[in-house]
Amino acid sequence: MKERSVAIVVLAAGKATRMGEGGSHKLLAEFDGIPLVRRVALAAGGAGASSVIVVVGHRQAEIRQALHGLPLLIVENPAYESGMASSLKVGFASTDVDDTDGVLVMMADMPAISADHLDRLIAAFRDADVLSIVRSVADGQPGNPVILPGTLKDAIRRLEGDKGARGIVETCGLPIIDVEFGDVARLDLDTPEAIVSTGGILKG
Q1: Looking at the DSSP assignment, which residues form a beta bridge with residue 149?
Q2: What digits encode the pLDDT tens for the residues 123-173?
Q3: Which residues contact 68 (CB under 8 A, 6 or more apart)?
Q4: From 32, 76, 142, 199, which residue has the greatest number of CB atoms within 10 Å?
């Protein structure tokens, strides 16, 4: 049987309003000298996925520059201000996900995520007896990233507003496989204080 293919969609379009009005862009904060969005994209690119798609919107010129030279597809979400659903829809509209068996959705503000974490999710998706949702959890609580099987692509494309795929995951009736990541699954950065406390340096 042919190995199931997985594309990765990285969501990097949001305004991050909790950073404060006119504040620094969290995805440009540097960890070990590397902009956060590039650090996450490198993790995605190091995993065994068929392709990596990064959705950009807010301050996209700077985000694109931070991603320069990486082997990935950057797609623009012109409606990023309407919320996360629009970014998911743009990512899932990419031709790079059309023929894949699953799509791994991840946020761009997870400094502790690694290619190994993503490969664990991909391996669980490929090893499942039937097409299943595979999600990372922290002490049993749902977190990010998550792999959605291709059968949910149409449902994602119908999303509206500032919401992600959690409602679809919880109501679609598909099997859910949890992969324990610990704090990694829930460590995202929404405030300047959170960035500094995890070793980041705000840049602009």
Answers
A1: 102
A2: 999 999 999 999 999 999 999 999 999 999 999 989 988 878 888 999 999
A3: none
A4: 142
